[in-house]
Amino acid sequence: MRWKLLLVAAIAAGTVASAQTGRPAGYLAPGELDVTAILEPAPRPGDPRYETDRDIFRDTRRLVGSERYALATQDAEIQPAAMLRNFSCAVGVALTPENSPKLLAVVQRAAADTGGQAGRAKEFYKRERPYVIDQGPTCQAPEELFDRRNNRASYDYPSGHSTWGWTWATVLAGAAPDRAQAILERGRAYADSRFVCGVHNESAVEAGMMSAATTMALVQTKPEYQADLAAARQELTALRQSGAPAPEHCDAEAALIAQRVMPALPALEPAEAE
Asked: Can you give the pTM of this predicted structure?
C-alpha cells in the first residue's frame, strides 16, 4: 500500500520531493518538459476515437474470467516486488527488491519524471474513465480509483499504470539490451492490461506509453541517469551470470502476452493499380 500511495502522489503532484535536498527526485529540472504539448488531445464526444474507445471497452468485457483477464488483474499491482516479478520472465531471471536495488532505484527516480508528466496531463485533459461512460465489469473496484479529494473518479488520459509500465520497460531494455525485445513486449502487454481491466480507455493506454517514451527520451540524455543505468546494468548482468533461476511460469505468461486483445479489424482490400 505504501508504494501505491507513493506512485499516486508522484502522478498527482508531478514530482516527489527529496527529503535531503528539497529538489525534485527525478532527473529533469522543473519546467524542462511539457508533455501536453506533445500528446494528441484526449478524445471527446463526436471524435471517432471516442466511439472507438467505447467499442473497445464493450468488446473486451468478453475477456472477464479469462486467463488474460487474470494477468491484467495481476498487472494492476504496482508495488516494486510486483513490478520486478512482472518483468522477470522478460529479463530471464527472477528479480526481487533484494537482488535488484540499483535497478529499482533508477526506475523509481525516472518514474518521478514520467509519472509527473502523466499526472499533469490527466488534470489538463480531464477525460473520464470508460466505466463512467458505459457500464461493465472492471478488474479493480471503482473505489480504488476514486479521487476523494475532488469527490470523483480519477481521470483516464493518459494512463498512469501504462506510463509506469513503459518506464520500467525502457529502463530494463537499457539495462539488458539483449533482452529488449521480450522486455518491450511485456511492457506493451502490461499497458494493454489496463483496457483489458476496463479501467482505462485504449487511447489513454497509448497516451501513457507515449508520455513515458517522450519523457524518457529526455531523461536518457542526463549524465546522472546514464551513470545510474550503468550501475543497474552491472548489477543485473552479475545476477544473470550468477545462475539465478528464471520463474517457472514463463511459458504460460509468454502465451498470454502473445495474444493481441484488440478487436479484430477487417482486412484491407488490395489497392487497385492506377
From this structure: 0.88
